[in-house]
Design goal:
Largest sheet: 5 strands, parallel
CATH class of the largest domain: Alpha Beta
Number of helices: 19
Low-confidence stretches: 128-134
Radius of gyration: 28 Å
CATH topology of the largest domain: Rossmann fold
Mean pLDDT: 87
Strand content: 5-15%
Helix content: 40-55%
Number of strands: 16
């Protein structure tokens, strides 16, 4: 049985919550900031219900959150407050609280939040630490598509995908443009028991504001000019499956209220219709925004509903040698696509791929490799085919390092041009053969 620590200085309210929860949870109590920390250390509860206004201090709970998070950063703290100022609840979440809840307490809704907190806690405990992940160097999406990655950070992402696919919690996927957020969402769907039903993606930023509501919720005949027949919305078409709301931060504010209502009861009403229909849809949202909760982004209540669990996808430049593994996978596909069975990366090209910063991430890598696969000579992709200059690929301000980098690239290009003929290279470069040999030895270049 999971444990819940109720921290509330109102004895009647504390007793009421204990009575409502004791049949499902092992309940403990505390009535002040000091006693709550003592109980937390002693019990290490699965969930904490924390009154924000302890000890007659309106924001005392913030200090308690800070101390509890130091003791256990995975603690699931649900803040309960009579203060209707939204900023206080949001501040609590920023400091590590799982969710916040306004008084008077709706017991059934509170139970749902506790259940969700326990579910997430289990997922976090089951997922191994980044340094202890094993498994495959890729994540299958279907029989022909994979997410490739051998870095520790991607092993962690793969493990989270596997864990999340066994649940129906809402997931928020964050990351820069081109990092593979839709692929990640598809992988969660593919590995879940919803895989035989539809995966329906919608880009909230690509559909005009006047159309997005009808696209999501559908409409009935005669609802507006041009509605000549009933139309099923994307939410309905995802019934039994998964709906991806890509670029969720671009969703209009007025539509966010309707989406929030759907998340709460899983019921939709078509535009112009009078009946409600229950659908069973898992929601995954994605964004490249760093802060979804600013004035131009999401309502805070919708944000917390959508981000029951969050996956942060790393940028390609943060994934080390993964860029080479991804590039090899793309080239393997391009061999068949462009009928070039001997297509491969040169050693120089591999070094450039690793040192380049990839502002467009995997999408940019795919674009450059597709072009290079067509234009390269002798099926060998060089940095010039990738259209990445030494300046772009090397952000070096130390003079000696910059000189060494230039020297190595120069020598490698020279030997390619001369087919590893030292005499020819000496003649073209004006550098004596002994000096060339010494330079190549220093740079680790073998012929």
């Amino acid at each position: 049985m999971y444990s819940v620590l109720i921290v509330e200085d109102n004895a009647d309210l504390r007793e009421n919550m204990k009575w409502a929860l004791s049949s499902s949870y092992k309940v403990f109590e505390a009535d002040s900031a000091v006693s709550s920390i003592d109980a937390f250390k002693r019990i290490l509860p699965d969930v904490v219900l924390l009154d924000m206004g302890l000890d007659n201090i309106p924001d005392c709970g913030l200090t308690v959150i800070d101390e509890m998070m130091v003791i256990n950063r995975f603690a699931k703290i649900i803040v309960i407050t009579a203060n209707t100022t939204p900023t206080l609840g949001h501040e609590a979440v920023q400091r590590g609280a799982f969710d916040f809840f306004y008084k008077p307490i709706d017991v059934e809704q509170l139970k749902q939040i506790i259940e969700r907190a326990v579910r997430i806690k289990n997922l976090e405990q089951q997922a191994p630490a980044a340094g202890n992940t094993g498994g495959d160097p890729h994540m299958e999406i279907d029989s022909s598509i994979f997410i490739v990655g051998k870095s520790e950070v991607m092993k962690r992402v793969f493990e989270l995908i596997r864990r999340l696919s066994q649940t129906d919690v809402n997931v928020l996927i964050t990351g820069e443009s081109g990092t593979g957020k839709e692929l990640c969402a598809r992988a969660i769907h593919y590995h879940s028991n919803r895989r035989t039903n539809n995966f329906v993606p919608i880009n909230c930023g690509a559909i005009p504001e006047t159309l997005i509501e009808s696209e999501l919720f559908g409409y009935v005949k005669g609802a507006f000019t041009g509605a000549v027949a009933d139309k099923e919305g994307l939410i309905e078409s995802a019934d039994g499956g998964t709906l991806l709301l890509d670029e969720i931060g671009e969703m209009p504010k007025n539509l966010q209220v309707k989406l929030l209502r759907f998340l709460e009861d899983q019921k939709i009403q078509r535009i112009g219709g009078t009946t409600l229909k229950t659908v069973n849809v898992r929601i995954i949202a994605a964004t490249n925004r760093k802060d979804l909760k600013d004035e131009s982004g999401l309502r805070n209540d919708l944000y917390y509903r959508l981000s029951e669990f969050q996956i942060d996808l790393p940028a390609l430049r943060e994934r080390g040698d993964d860029v080479i593994h991804i590039a090899e996978s793309i080239i393997e596909r391009n061999r068949r696509r462009f009928n070039r069975p001997r297509l491969h990366l040169s050693p120089r090209a591999k070094k450039v791929l690793i040192s380049y910063s990839w502002p467009g991430n995997v999408r940019e890598l795919e674009n450059k490799l597709s072009r290079a696969s067509i234009t390269c000579i002798n099926d060998r992709i060089e940095p010039e085919d990738l259209q990445i200059s030494s300046k772009d690929a090397c952000d070096i301000f130390d003079y000696k390092k910059a000189r060494d980098a230039f020297e190595k690239e120069y020598l490698e290009s020279l030997m390619v041009k001369c087919n590893n003929n030292i005499s020819e290279a000496s003649k073209i470069s004006g550098i004596s053969r002994p000096t060339l040999y010494n330079m190549m030895k220093k740079q680790g270049i073998k012929i």
